[in-house]
Each structure stands twice: as structure tokens, then as C-alpha cells.
Design brief:
Largest sheet: 6 strands, mixed
Number of domains: 2
Structural class: alpha/beta
Distance between the termini: 50 Å
Order of helices and strands: EEEHEEHEHHHEHEHEEHHEE
CATH superfamily of the largest domain: P-loop containing nucleotide triphosphate hydrolases
Oligomer: single chain
Helix content: 25-40%
Strand content: 15-25%
Number of strands: 12
CATH class of the largest domain: Alpha Beta
Length: 262
């Protein structure tokens, strides 16, 4: 695996023509912690921020830098060897097998759907084992549940073996048990050196697994820090609305966010 690095966003300004807000980030460094969650209400700019960091959207002002070099100056393949990105939705034109989907993660390293090197095969096998799809490797996407397809695409991102992995809602379509298992996989990979930045809607998953949270609202970073400092009742109510309570988790002591009853 490549050594960990940092993505730095400097003076970013990005806006959609149809949007009523502008993403404005004076400075933000991603990759300084093993796991970082980008949180915030719908429409706050989380996915846009991730796409700017991945070089998929070019801001009107400012720049994203990877290892001190502008992201826009890398070729897509060279950047993909270092910076992985998994979107919310992965459109598929063909009914690939699970193994073929995961093998796509090796494209940045010269691999194709048919694995040709021991390194490719080892990376794919490990990723399949991590997401518990080894027994599904010859199944086609059409034969999988939504959660299983999501795990297959996550395996492809892991097989890519980047230094930093940007994930847009990696636990989408997963049940509670599978979502926690997925975060445990990412935690284990992070302990080995992978840096993970994930957009998460589940505040409790974010608090339990991520030592750093970045809270967005209205296209701006309104807070950045550890869960215990960031997930306070006053801050969350200001961003998400009044009907929220925060209590200590019975085991970890981390903040647990609950819907308040009237």
C-alpha cells in the first residue's frame, strides 16, 4: 500500500448554476487522521466537497492539492493510484460478476477485468474477503441485493490500494449490522496506513468509528474536530433542527444522537 498523504483544499469556491448556495472552503486538510467523516444535512455540500477533493469537479476559485501538487495537474490514472474515490451511485452498463467489478479497482495499476499479475489477484482476493463476498465472486450484479452491490463496489475501491480513499456514503443500503461491519473493515485498513474520508449520514456511526468529524452546513465548514467536541446539542440543533438529543453511548462514552420526542 502507498504511504499515507494529505489532500489540502485551499480557498475553494464552487457553485452549481441551479444551486442556491456556494461551496466555500478557506482551507481544509484531509488525511491527517486515519478516519474522517464528513457530516451535515442534505444539500450542505458534502458530496461536492468530496468530488472537488478527488479532482472530479474543478472549482471556480482555489485548488485541491495532493502531496503538495495540484490535483488538476495529475493524469487520471496517476492520481487514481494514490487517491481512490467511491461515489454514491455506480452506474453499470453490463451485468458483470462480482470478481470483475472488484477487478476494476486494479485499472489504475494497469490491470483489467481479467487479472494478470499475482499482485492484482492478491489485492482482489483480499478485498473480497474483507467485504465477505468471496463466495459471491462469480455471481452477477443482477443477482445481488442493493447492500451486496454496495459491498462489491467498496471492495473495488479497496482493491485499488490507494493512499487515501474518499467514500461517498459507503454504508448506503447496508443494514445496521453490515454498516458497522463495513466501518470495522475501514478501521482495520486505516490502522495499516490507509487514510479514509467518508461522507456519512449516520451521525452515530461517525461518532463511534471516526476520530475526526467535519461538519458542513450551507456549503461551509462550520465545525471540525473530535466527536465529543463537535456533536454538542446546541451545535447540532443549530444545523439539523431542534428535535435532537445527545447522550453518552453506554459503552464507548461517545456522543449518541437521538431524535427527541415531543
Amino acid at each position: 500500500m502507498n504511504p499515507a498523504g494529505q489532500l489540502v483544499l485551499n480557498a475553494i469556491r464552487f457553485e452549481y448554476e441551479s444551486a442556491a448556495w456556494t461551496l466555500a472552503v478557506p482551507t481544509l486538510t484531509l488525511g491527517s487522521e486515519p478516519l474522517c467523516a464528513i457530516i451535515g444535512p442534505n444539500g450542505s455540500g458534502k458530496s461536492t466537497l468530496l468530488k472537488v477533493a478527488a479532482g472530479l469537479l474543478r472549482p471556480a476559485a482555489g485548488e485541491a492539492r495532493w502531496q503538495g501538487r495540484r490535483v488538476a495537474d495529475y493524469s487520471r490514472r496517476t492520481l487514481a493510484q494514490q487517491v481512490g474515490y467511491l461515489p454514491q451511485e455506480c452506474p453499470v452498463l453490463f451485468d458483470y460478476t462480482v470478481e470483475q467489478v472488484v477487478s476494476m479497482g486494479r485499472h489504475a495499476h494497469g490491470g483489467v477485468l481479467e487479472l494478470t499479475t499475482p499482485g492484482d489477484r492478491a489485492a482482489v482476493d483480499r478485498a473480497l474477503a474483507d467485504v465477505r463476498l468471496m463466495d459471491y465472486r462469480q455471481r452477477r450484479l443482477s443477482q445481488l441485493s442493493g447492500g451486496e452491490r454496495r459491498r462489491a463496489w467498496l471492495a473495488a475501491a479497496l482493491a485499488q490500494e490507494p493512499a487515501i480513499l474518499l467514500l461517498d456514503e459507503p454504508t448506503q443500503a447496508l443494514d445496521v449490522h453490515q454498516a458497522a461491519a463495513m466501518m470495522e473493515i475501514l478501521t482495520a485498513r486505516a490502522a495499516e496506513g490507509l487514510r479514509v474520508v467518508a461522507v456519512l449520514h449516520d451521525l452515530n456511526l461517525a461518532a463511534l468509528f471516526c476520530p475526526r468529524l467535519v461538519l458542513l452546513a450551507g456549503g461551509a465548514v462550520v465545525a471540525d474536530g473530535p466527536p465529543a467536541e463537535l456533536l454538542t446539542p446546541d451545535r447540532l440543533r443549530a444545523v439539523y433542527g431542534d428535535k435532537l438529543d445527545v447522550v453518552p453511548h453506554p459503552r464507548s462514552g461517545q456522543p449518541l444522537v437521538l431524535a427527541a420526542t415531543s
